[in-house]
Design brief:
This protein is an alpha+beta fold and about 180 residues long. The protein has one domain: Gcn5-related N-acetyltransferase (GNAT) (Aminopeptidase), CATH 3.40.630. About 25% of the residues lie in helices and about 30% in strands. The chain contains five helices and eight strands; from the N terminus they run ββααβββαβαββα. It has an eight-stranded mixed β-sheet, sandwiched between helices. It is globular and about 40 Å long. The model has no long low-confidence stretch (mean pLDDT about 85).
Length: about 180
């Protein structure tokens, strides 16, 4: 992994020094709204069945995003390999970075790296159907909705009844788009 530069962001491989910033994201109810219903994560008591990524700064596929101009922490992005040719895109940003196109900017840079340098042929991403902001990012970067899945959860969060949406982008889509 290498550092990636966009117009406004610097994405670097995460390090243990980023852990405090990652934990601060997990403590923000709005950031966690579509992951666990908005509960601040207590890493000492975290549900062992949590299905969302809680990086510690040692994960090989997570990049820390900082504003290029001042080094302020914006969030993190990941491109997690599912197979040799498929990776899953993920991201989590501080509220102060929402609505500015930073998620789109960072995700585009990471996907470009994934296709050009890591050799992926397909990038997938998922979110709750009601997470319109994340869905908008996926669509802006050229991903296509492929399916919606409905699951029974023992402790459902608001909006989960509308399902989880799956998006994908193929390398060939990117080349032609």
């Amino acid at each position: 992994m290498i550092a990636l530069q966009t117009a406004r962001l610097t994405l670097t491989p995460c390090t243990p020094e980023d852990r405090a910033d990652f934990i601060a994201l997990e403590r923000d109810p709005e950031v966690m709204r579509f992951l666990n219903g908005g509960y601040a994560v207590d890493r000492e008591k975290v549900d062992p069945n949590a299905t969302f990524l809680m990086p510690n700064g040692t994960e090989p596929h997570v990049w820390t995003a900082r504003r290029t101009t001042d080094g302020v922490f914006i969030g993190w992005f990941c491109l997690w390999p599912e197979t040799e040719t498929v990776a899953e895109l993920g991201y989590r940003l501080r509220r102060a970075g929402w609505g500015q196109g930073l998620a789109t900017e960072g995700a585009c840079a990471l996907i470009q790296w994934g296709f050009e340098k890591a050799g992926y042929d397909k990038v997938i991403a998922t979110t709750m159907a009601v997470n319109h902001g994340s869905r908008r990012v996926m669509e802006k970067i050229g991903m296509h909705h492929t399916r919606t899945e409905h699951a029974e959860w023992p402790d459902p969060i608001p909006g989960s009844e509308q399902g989880e949406v799956w998006y994908e982008l193929l390398r060939t889509d990117r080349a032609s788009g």
